[in-house]
């Protein structure tokens, strides 16, 4: 899959309006809101709606769910005005197809926790029922938010057949080499931009986004 000229940027784990507005002003493309009770960044739907209502145009809201009842997913998506649903559990292709039918106003992203065990066959069944993937770090007994990166060379053998976001421990120290090596459709940062779970560091947000855009400019200048 050809690399897009513009890398999409998603920042996940939003819980505070000032953090969301800082990211929007800095040029983020999407913000993630986690609706999973076991996450330290879990947010109540009404609190998320309050933030989402204040976002400027063309900043998309992504709801993150883990093995949630799809009727509740649909209820929260409608209530909050979500543009994307990110499924971060063990949701089956059948679940994704049914949710896509139930919630036709949202696009679906399926997260995969990548490790040495990962193979292309893991993704193939989902290609007809989601619009993209998110590749995160595998760690036993966790569903994400590890703050750890994974071996990016594994992606070569996965051969994702859909646009994918690279996640897993991304921060200002590794985003430029990540973009050079992986060339994803988009990137997703969370704990690497925080002072504490759910509390984003505005300076890190701004620097992260500048680094992504700077890497794009450098790459494009070399292709001319």
From TrEMBL:
Query: What Enzyme Commission number(s) apply to this enzyme?
Result: 5.3.1.24
The Gene Ontology terms for molecular function here are: phosphoribosylanthranilate isomerase activity
Per the record, the GO terms for biological process are: L-tryptophan biosynthetic process
Q: Is Amino-acid biosynthesis there in the keyword field?
A: yes
Against InterPro entries, the record matches this protein to: Aldolase_TIM, PRAI_dom, RibuloseP-bd_barrel, TrpF_fam
Query: Which keywords are on file for this protein?
Result: Amino-acid biosynthesis, Aromatic amino acid biosynthesis, Isomerase, Tryptophan biosynthesis
According to the UniProt record, what class of enzyme is this?
A: isomerase
By what name is this protein known? N-(5'-phosphoribosyl)anthranilate isomerase
Its source organism is: Desulfobulbus propionicus (strain ATCC 33891 / DSM 2032 / VKM B-1956 / 1pr3)
Tell me the gene name: trpF
């Amino acid at each position: 899959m050809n690399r897009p000229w513009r890398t999409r940027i998603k920042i996940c784990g939003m819980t505070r309006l000032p953090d969301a507005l800082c990211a929007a002003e800095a040029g983020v493309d999407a913000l993630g809101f986690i609706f999973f009770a076991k996450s330290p960044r879990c947010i109540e739907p009404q609190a998320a709606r309050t933030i989402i209502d204040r976002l400027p145009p063309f900043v998309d809201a992504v709801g993150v769910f883990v093995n949630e009842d799809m009727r509740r997913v649909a209820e929260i998506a409608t209530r909050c005005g979500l543009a994307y649903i990110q499924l971060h559990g063990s949701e089956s292709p059948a679940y994704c197809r049914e949710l896509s039918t139930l919630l036709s106003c949202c696009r679906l992203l399926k997260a995969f926790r990548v490790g040495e065990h990962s193979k292309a066959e893991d993704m193939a069944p989902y290609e007809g029922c989601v619009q993209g993937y998110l590749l995160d770090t595998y760690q036993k007994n966790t569903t994400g938010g590890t703050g750890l990166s994974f071996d990016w060379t594994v992606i070569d053998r996965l051969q994702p057949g859909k646009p994918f976001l690279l996640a897993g421990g991304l921060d200002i120290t590794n985003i430029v080499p990540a973009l050079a090596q992986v060339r994803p459709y988009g990137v997703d940062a969370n704990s690497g931009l925080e002072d504490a779970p759910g509390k984003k560091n505005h300076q890190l947000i701004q620097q992260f986004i500048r680094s992504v855009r700077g890497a794009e400019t450098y790459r494009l200048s070399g292709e001319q």
